[in-house]
Amino acid sequence: MRTAFSLILTLFSQVVFGQKITLLDDTSGAPIEGVAFMFQPIDGGYNGNVISDENGAINLKAIDFPIVIRTQHVAYQSITDTLGVAKDYVIRLEPKKVQLDDFIVTGQFNPQSAEQSVFTVKVIDQEDIKARGAINLAEALSNSLNIRYSQDLALGSTGISMQGISGQNVKILLDGIPLVNRNGNGNAADLSQVNLNNIERIEIVEGPMAVNYGANALAGVINLISYKDAEHTTEISVGIQEETVGSEFGADKGKHIQNININQQIASQWFAQIGVLHSDFKGYQGSLTGRPKEWNPKEQFQTNALIKFSPKNSSVYYRFDYLDETIDDLGRSNDNYLPTGENQPFAIDEEYLTQRTIHQIQAEGKLPFLNRYNAFASYSDFERVKSRFSKNLVTGEKQLTTASGDQDISTYKVWEFGGTGYLAFSDLVDLQTGYNLSFEKVGGGRIQEGEQQINDVAIFSSLEWEMLNHTTVRPGVRLVMNSVFGTQLIPSIQIKKSFDNASLRLAYGRGYRSPSVRELYFEFVDSNHRIFGNPDLTPEFSHHISANFSKPFELMSAKSEAGVNIFYNTIEDQIGMAQSASDATSTTYINVDKYKTIGLGLNQKMEWSRFSASLGLSYIGRYNRLDEDQEEELNTFFYTPEVNANLQYDWEKIDTKINVFYKYTGGLRNYLFSEDSEGEQQVTIGEVEDYHWLDLTLSKTFFNHLYLVFGAKNLLDIQRINNSGVSGGTHSGGASVPVSYGRSYFIKLNYNLKLK
Q1: What is the per-residue pLDDT across 589-628, written as a single tens digit (0 to 9) for each?
Q2: Closest CA to 699 of 754, 748, 745, 662
Q3: pTM of the model as a whole
Q4: What is the CA radius of gyration of the chain?
Q5: Which residues of 9-20 are buried (b: 16+ CB within 10 A; e: fewer)?
Q6: Cβ contacts of residue 6 below 8 Å, gap of 6+?
Q7: What is the C-alpha to C-alpha distance for residues 658 and 131, in angstroms, rounded to an integer?
Q8: Whose C-alpha in 1, 133, 255, 653 is 20 to 30 A from the C-alpha of 25?
Q9: What is the distance between the alpha carbons of residues 35 and 32, in angstroms, rounded to a whole number?
């Protein structure tokens, strides 16, 4: 009897119902919500994965002890341990002092930490996006190092350059797939059209990524990673943001933003998400009077939806994105007296309507013959409609004008297919191989013959070899077959050497970019513009060399990491635009003889107690050789410094975070095409003025559900900077370059509801 009782007691002690584990912050003692808690009995068999609730609690049912556990949370150090006895536990997790192990996927064989990657990857996570009050990609990157902006006030667009190279060589991706825009397939994107609704993080890789992502990726890639999972069964987020535009604010002034996101775990293998964002920028009057505005009004609607199915060892999801944007260019009021003597004033207005629809299907997982695979298919339909009309300001009646170029429709349709497979031959050697098919069709009244098409077919492969002495070598090659410019071979190699608590990364990449349809066949002539494509353009060929050294260390009890980055780019036959200073309305695309950039970057980040900071410095040189007979004084590098700093203080007593974002953008010397008295073209040097940018935000969480951000953008009130040497531009006009509409203030309120 006693033996039977002992046996029952032993079995009961090994299988206990309702076991509770509580996870606490080791510093503050506060409960930690959202910890991924993985467990498996030591004797094998089943395993589990649960998420801690708002009280930091996890309830385990019918678990056979002892068990091996592992925790994972973006803000806390992971632990692995064995729990041998069936009882309630309190586990304290240590906060991460410096975020050195960002989870990244861009360019990787398998998802891994940024520290393990052979590429140097920067990550802007959701917390950083929220702290900035950023709605679109331009705002999220506003103080990033080695990125410079350009604004087009008439078109309402924001472009960038990276490492001193134009946006045509920067590829914007959405979950690894190029984001189509009016300028091309992923390149030269309008960042103000890239909204961040449902974006989990932004991964930035500077340097050659042509082997992985094809043409237009010499300067690097910016990959937006969307949410595809939820920690709770139901998650609802509703947000509103109100923002002044300079000193202007009101029902018909300022900027007004609303959004809603719903994540739903439908079943164990099914997940769905839907989101809607509305942004209404009322424009900026500035120094103008009447109807015209310095910055045109812009209204955007964005909808995104996702459904994901995750059977064993794989996942498949479909994503839908839709953008509707309207920009109004308001003309001046003109008197119009009727025969009756009544004045019905009118104005000549322009409207730009953009619609972009994206369908994506992706699948990833394991196959019997592949350690991992990824495959996708996407279709993007981009349309931009320009309308010019006469508007009766009394009756509101509109009548289209009939001059050449007043009405236009531009379309851009892209089918994209791709796939990669990964094989691990051993613990030391991994192989990646894949393909990419791209079919682009561009149409509209400003495209020669009304429609043009370019197709790309590519195959690529990379080998990642873990050599002796903690050295990883990754050679790769991409074979591209272009329907217009033939076949090209693009090689690259990355090397990573790990020392004692330090890393050295070396990279070389051969770049290739064929001219876009717009650069080849664009043709726009009206009373204010003469812009011509050039079908005689030749492809760009480039070389990139870089070295990056990083080392974490402790400084006066603070966790720190310092890094040094050096890069050199040379581009032969770079594609640019030539503009005559005597006729600012006439531009065309040309091949520049040679273009180079060289740069040095220093960065350091640290965290001490509740204070964290990062500081960066770069010095970039740009060189243009327009032809072999270029004058000696033009045959030199022009250097530009940049400095950025991010500061955060966690005011624990009032549960408030204070953030400061700063950037100094140095003066930029450039070339100006002009004509001498005899009508001969000549090249002179101009300079764009330097400026400072400063943002300040305060964020606070109330009752675990309400998130408030208050902030000031552009505290130094920068609006325009001088551009010596430019007498006028196609859109911006004047001897200055627009940067912003001035100092503005915003308040953002988010309500987050999470249901188990």
Answers
A1: 888 778 899 999 999 998 888 899 999 999 999 988 765 5
A2: 748
A3: 0.82
A4: 28
A5: eeeeeeebeebe
A6: none
A7: 9
A8: 133
A9: 7
